[in-house]
């Protein structure tokens, strides 16, 4: 850990972004592969920004000799994590029925279909619904936890990065 403290702050923040988003992805994979909870389409949407944040965090960490470049990568990581939080808020809202989600994973069977169209629709339908809460802790779904934890991570990184701007 002492070696990481000798890095410029943007590179340290890149490492935090890499590890923080890595933990979020690791948690998602734990629930998927260990707990057997298949992700819905919107769950996957929340993962992609974390992958981007991990890549940007790694790039910031690797750019320790160029702090300004590392700062740019940290800003990208922060934006990606904030996007995952925003998607988590939207997804949690869909789960709690505060608003409607995408038809592709929350819709009902359309009316007025011919038997052949209905068969085609049903066989092409996704099995994991975005509006179903499959796990929660303290009344907060996984999407809600992603929103909260990602917002805390993005906010903490942004707050720390503001120290670089003041110097």
TrEMBL record:
Keyword Transmembrane helix: yes
UniProt keywords, alphabetically: Cell inner membrane, Cell membrane, Disulfide bond, Electron transport, Membrane, Oxidoreductase, Redox-active center, Transmembrane, Transmembrane helix, Transport
Highest rank taxon of the organism: Bacteria
Membrane topology note: Multi-pass membrane protein
Main location: membrane
Compartmental location: Cell inner membrane
PANTHER family, per the entry: DISULFIDE BOND FORMATION PROTEIN B, PROTEIN-DISULFIDE OXIDOREDUCTASE DSBI
Membrane-spanning segments: 12-33, 45-62, 69-92, 132-158
Keyword Zinc-finger: no
Pfam families named in the record: DsbB
Record's protein name: Disulfide bond formation protein B
């Amino acid at each position: 850990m002492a070696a990481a403290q000798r890095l410029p702050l943007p590179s340290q923040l890149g490492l935090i972004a890499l590890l923080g988003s890595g933990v979020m992805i690791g948690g998602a994979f734990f629930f998927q592969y260990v707990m057997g909870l298949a992700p819905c389409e919107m769950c996957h949407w929340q993962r992609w920004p974390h992958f981007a944040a991990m890549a940007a965090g790694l790039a910031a960490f690797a750019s320790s000799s160029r702090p300004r470049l590392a700062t740019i990568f940290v800003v990208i990581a922060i934006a990606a994590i904030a996007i995952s939080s925003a998607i988590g808020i939207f997804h949690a809202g869909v789960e709690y029925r505060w608003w409607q989600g995408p038809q592709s994973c929350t819709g009902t069977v359309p009316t007025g279909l011919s038997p052949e169209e209905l068969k085609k629709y049903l066989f092409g339908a996704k099995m994991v619904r975005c509006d179903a809460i499959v796990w929660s802790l303290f009344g907060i779904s996984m999407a809600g936890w992603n929103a909260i934890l990602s917002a805390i991570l993005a906010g903490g990184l942004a707050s720390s990065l503001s120290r670089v701007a003041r110097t």
